[in-house]
Amino acid sequence: MSWIRDSTLSWFQLLAIKILKTGHIPKHVAFIMDGNRRYASKNGMQKIEGHTKGFDKFAETLQWCRDLGIQEVTFYAFSIENFKRKEEEVNGLFNLVEQKLQNLLSHKDKTKQHGICIRIIGNLSLLPQNIQELIAEAMIFTKDHTKAFLNIAFAYTSRDEITHAIKDVIEGVKCDDILLEDIDENLITNCLYTNGSPNPDLLIRTSGEVRFSDFLMWQISNTCIYFTNVLWPEFNVWEFLNAIFYYQRCYSDIQKIMKIQSVQPVVQNNRQLTYIDKLLYKRQIAIESIYPSNI
Fold it and tell me: For burial by CB atoms within 10 Å, which of 156, 225, 237, 293 has the most?
């Protein structure tokens, strides 16, 4: 089944979206897709069947975001902590990911038509080589697309992300690209896996768990958080629209907080800007080295 689908919403659901669009729509929504395994247990399925249902919901939710005009979406797909699960489940997940990435790459025309830029954020070195190659191909093929941005956190935790950002900063100082006085929050932000993405306006977590599971901890300080008891494969458009309405109710308070915190404009000096450009180029070369073929 394709990642990018045509809208299947009813006229009544489209009317609800039209009404919500009269309010403020978040530019960036993040999802912690939790509950696949519990869904499988609840319905007498194998765990991998629950994950398959979860992927179908991911594709459906992505379409709802496009219907609503949300420009950027980030999904928490696989934590580094998930490597601790049983080998059978982890291998089943990797097989599923391989199938879905191959499916995505077989529909390049559709991806290009909709202008979707796909970015996998995480420690790719932890993944099997075949998965790394498919990820690299998808990222290289879509890197110049600008209509919408899809980020998938895979082999990801915030602790790993921040650790690598600090290592990059230390390397910059060692190489005399930056000075100690150049180190600030903005520099670290630009060294994260999420470089170039605005912080999420809204974070949605399913399954009734009220925690963040080490997801985007640096980025969500001013994010509106919506928890729901619904298991991820059972997440529906009404629950999604309810989360958007909840965000709209919180919007004025969030804006007040952000206004207070951003009295002074962020200014980067030339050393910082030059180093960030160098770091991003280095990362792009690393991706291209995984999948060097011309696309």
Answer: 156
